[in-house]
Amino acid sequence: MSRYLYFRPTAGNARHPLLAHLDACASRAHIAELHGRLIRAHLAPDPAVARRLVALLASPAAGHDMRFARRVFDGMSNPNAPVWNCIIRGYTSRRAPGEALATFRDMVRRGVAPDNYTMATAVSACAAADGWAWEWRAAGDAVHAMVRKIGSAADLFVMSGLVKLYGTFRSVEDARKVFGEMQERDVVSWTSMISAFAQRGMWDDALRFLAEMQADGVSPNKVTIISLLSACGHGQAVDRGQWVYGHLSEYGIEADVDIGNALISMYAKCGCMSDALEAFKAMPTRNTKSWNMLIDGFVQNQKHKEALTMFEEMLSTDFNLDAVTLVTVLSACTQLGDLQQGRNLHSYIRSREIYCDAILLNSMINMYAKCGDMAAAEMVFQNMKQRDVVSWTTMVCGYVQGRQFTAAFIFFEEMNVAGIVASEMALVSLRSACSQLGALDKGREIHAYIEEKNIKRDVFLESALVDMYAKCGCIDMAAEIFSKMQHKQTLTWNSMIGGLASNGHGKEAVQLFDQMLKFGDPKPDVITFKTVLGACAHVGMVNEGLRYFHSMSSFGIAPDIEQYGCIADLLSRAGLLEEAFEFIKKIPIDPNPIIWGSLLSACRFHHKMDLVTKVRQHIINVAPNDVGTHVLISNLHAEGGQWDDVQQIREQMGSRGIEKSPGHSSIQV
């Protein structure tokens, strides 16, 4: 595929000494310097020179610098197919399949005839995308149709790419059909087909094709082994992976560093980190990727301290860290909430003047934000030369998480001024801020923004809208959005049920819960039951509440202290105080002060002063220093004229240093 990377300059410029440097460029900095010299020498507009620059910038030598490559490409008047191919391939290599396919469509619209290389690259772009998304499958089918239309179905590279494409989509029958249509097959074709079977767990077919491959005179190579190990990892088939690795000698394949890395990755994806560590230690040679695989495996398996331990061990070796290492270690710091370790890593990056791309800087912002240091997060953000939507989203979400809502909205406004369209994640986070503030006007502004920008409303964003309107008291608007949603998840039902309950519509909340149960999918979770039990308590639906409580086990949910508290509150509000008292005493989890407090409040409401004395000792034992509990008991005794008991409680408060704090409230102005 390197056949398109060299372009012969036009005859008029063939002897210029600068052009001799084009093929010698080995880095992005070298290319950038040469580009400036070509501009000053008035050679940059030359079509052949521009083609060569695009090819170099989109190649690994320049780190697939697609921003620079695109700028040169867009300045060309009539780029030919090889130049388009370089751009498409560059985007695919840069893991930007959306841009690659958009460029491919633009090429076809502008009347440039694609060749076999173009089609192979377009197929590769489709395979690089998320194969589970129907739109990518549709794009793959469209590219396949064009392959047939322009006669590329005889090209080995194109057809092998299609086999891999359908394997990515886990469509084995389509992959097998393409494989059967191939006029010739090489090790790539066979490997793609075998990998497609393995990804679906069709091991009998995979092994049969492996035997047929050898019978056809094609020997498996290390790519075949790596593909099989990768499939075993994705399929959690650790036994099969060990079998594949154990048969290396049979295929005459040496276990080099690439296969060792694939083995580590397979073990990590299967959750077998002790085996991954053992495989790592057994490797005769390692590279930076080996360390990255192991460290990332620990992070993915929630073993963050082990990941940091391996990173420290890596620092003591001669291996060079790369962006992948640093991003992974920052993730470990984030998950641990280890701000100091994150700061140490930031200092390490600065002291060694390590180049930070957007991904690494965004990871750094995320670490500081999740660890609560928004000042440091903003400093990294402000020093970024190029910010993307992830940078802005991380800042907005960080401020919301830290309850700095004003700063979050300011960043959102600055984001608009910068011309960045907010992501769904940022909007969901801002909706949460509106819900917590009760800021209905801000919520409506964001809703209008979503409509204006025509932002795709997924289930999380729509659920956030329901939650915001419900918590701001606009239950009719919440119900309207809820009713129009085509797909609802448990969190959606929870938001609507909770919204109805908190806005005085307890019976409607219970009715909606019954409707959820009738649908059968999605299933209620712990939060659903807490919400509906609370609704039952507020409207006095004792029998229904008890029935729902006892049905939790049928959904595989064990009641926690909050569900037990809801039942205690349900019985207390209904005046069934003795029943509530007996229920609380039998709770298998130690009741907290809130549960006993709800019973005390009910005693006050129903004038059951005889029960107060029984409850009093229980609650003081549970919360001997809780000021609210002591004040409530004191007030209850005072209302019953039991002044000796009042004096005793106040003396206990004084001896324990318990003081009543003044109350406060806040409103949005």
TrEMBL record:
Read off the InterPro entries from this record. Answer: E_motif, PPR_At4g14850-like_plant, PPR_rpt, TPR-like_helical_dom_sf
Is Repeat one of the keywords? yes
Cite the PROSITE patterns for this sequence.
PPR (PS51375)
Q: List residue spans for each PPR repeat.
A: 80-114, 186-220, 287-321, 357-391, 489-523, 525-559
Write one Gene Ontology MF term.
Answer: mRNA binding
Top-level taxon in the UniProt lineage:
Eukaryota
Q: What's in the keyword line of the UniProt record? A: Repeat, Transit peptide
Q: Which Pfam families match?
A: E_motif, PPR, PPR_2
Which residues are listed as membrane-spanning?
A: none
Q: Any keyword Transferase?
A: no
The protein's name in its UniProt record: Pentatricopeptide repeat-containing protein
